[in-house]
Amino acid sequence: MKVIERGHGTERVAIVGGIHGDEPAGERIVNRLADRIDDDAEKTIQLIIANEPALKRGERYTSVDLNRSFPGDLEGETYETVLAARLKRLLEGCDAVLALHTSRSAPPPFAVYSSLTESVRRTVTALPVEYALDSGTLRDTTLDSVVPHAVSFETGRQGSEEAVEVGFEGALSFLRAHGAVTDMDPSFTETTVVEGQREVPKGDGTPHVYYNNFEPLPKGAIFAEDDTYTHRVEHDDLVPVLASEHGYENLFGVYATVKQTLDPPS
Ligand SMILES: [Zn+2]
């Protein structure tokens, strides 16, 4: 794990890239931020590259998925189990945390959080996203489910230059929103929150996904199918998130419902 510090002060924010070794955008964004941010920033800014061995190999992880390994264990048996515990400890006490990701699922960029604090509201409404996924009911082994005030930011398609640009600009918006970078005023927009309902399993055979992220799913339509499953939509208020044919070994994505609109901080 590499940690670059900028700025000063007891208040602290962090940006984490390279949680997944097959998502090089995060590391590039963190390095660009390190070049861009002056050392006289108003708060302590920690710029973190998490899983260096996995990035070096260009693989998602070395032994287990880091973002399924939280809270981790300092005495754990695998590299990522120990790394999760080290990263969680490093981020303790941060006022705001942004974790950078890219995915094989379709655009647009979106945010993910598990617990809505005022810091999380500030982050989500500052990011260049129309949608946020409240994944509080889905998993408890991700970074944003164990680190207070953490938001994951899916910046775009894995390997694309656009994902680097969106992630870099979004990271600057995050830093401005929390007063860590003051080159210009922060700006906020309202954001639609969808709540994760359940994961949609993938089986054997050629996978097909027929809808994009956040596209309303008509009741009765087939969302995705393969030789094992035909997922016909049973309710008319569902939207897919993380929808992809090849992004995950055994998931087509997640069904979500529109939950609320997040207003900018007052
Ligand atoms: Zn990722």
TrEMBL record:
<keyword id="KW-0378">Hydrolase</keyword>
<dbReference type="GO" id="GO:0005829">
    <property type="term" value="C:cytosol"/>
</dbReference>
<feature type="domain" description="Succinylglutamate desuccinylase/Aspartoacylase catalytic">
    <location>
        <begin position="11"/>
        <end position="160"/>
    </location>
</feature>
<keyword id="KW-0862">Zinc</keyword>
<dbReference type="GO" id="GO:0016788">
    <property type="term" value="F:hydrolase activity, acting on ester bonds"/>
</dbReference>
<dbReference type="InterPro" id="IPR050178">
    <property type="entry name" value="AspA/AstE_fam"/>
</dbReference>
<protein>
    <submittedName>
        <fullName>Succinylglutamate desuccinylase / Aspartoacylase family protein</fullName>
    </submittedName>
</protein>
<dbReference type="InterPro" id="IPR055438">
    <property type="entry name" value="AstE_AspA_cat"/>
</dbReference>
<keyword id="KW-0479">Metal-binding</keyword>
<dbReference type="GO" id="GO:0046872">
    <property type="term" value="F:metal ion binding"/>
</dbReference>
<dbReference type="Pfam" id="PF24827">
    <property type="entry name" value="AstE_AspA_cat"/>
</dbReference>
